[in-house]
Amino acid sequence: MSDYDESDARIRPSRRGSRPRTKNRPKHADAEQAMVIGVDRGRYSCLIGLGTADERPILAMRAKELGRKSIVVGDSVRVVGDTTGAEGSLARIVGINDRVSVLRRSADDLDSFERVIVANAEHLVIVCAAASPEPRTGFVDRALVAAYAGDLTPVLLMTKTDLADPEPFAAQYRELGAPVLQWRRDEPVDAIADALAGSVSVLFGHSGVGKSTLVNALVPQAGRATGDVAGLTGKGRHTSSSAVALPLAGGGFVIDTPGVRSLGLGHVEPDMVVAAFPDLVEGAEHCPSGCQHLADDPDCALDAWVAEGNSTPERLASLRRLLASRRGQSDDHDDAG
Question: Is CATH 3.40.50.300 the right assignment for the domain spanning 102-256?
Fold first, then answer.
């Protein structure tokens, strides 16, 4: 029987190398601040040196230490590496600053997983056509909920006012205190440019409402593709395929988003949905605890509130459609999208 000592033992070398593992991450003290203005297949177009004489566009990629955290248009980020902006250069995004506002959506009202579309905007400009396609209160109400839930200020912008009088539709939101802007393609865009100057504003609306035409008027060098309304469906064709932030001549940015078919609110709590209807909030305070504010809730105080003239039956019906849809009790996608 042979005797063994430690010299006979064979130690298999580690394949991971000898570098010790650490949880410490580089601090990137030299990182520069930038704003994300476009996202395309894992590459991020950014503006560095905002508001300075050295403002310049750069292209960046995501650093591995960020993991799967989303980066969207409007994000304020920290970048390192080659930030010269020279052709072929590529910087790295190593940090995402806290967001002050977010525009979010879910796939539908039963899906609570939120998808951030835009970050750090001040205004959500809800674009509706006065006609072709017809404006829908259901979509505007949903957009109002998304604005309030994401800490954005909503603005209603009516386009194609040469085709129909926008006031009957716009009046109901003007009475709620929402700013209302109007525009037709054969008139100057100066009033809208003045209203949006100096801020970051998201344009949000159905395909075919003239959003890209408006963007091209506000930012002539944008060159956003435009399209017509499909004759058979009355719905617009998608012309913008991705969100992009474009600088305004008067300062600030306008963010053009792809035309939407639906706006899921599964990530928004019911109380926030009610809060988007300021004419109904006080009436809801008289409801018993646990009231869902639906038509089949026998003790809901909102019916009496409306009967007393504090709001309209149409507004209450819109609120109840949104609340019912979140509970899977409605499939009214026409107002949703």
Answer: yes
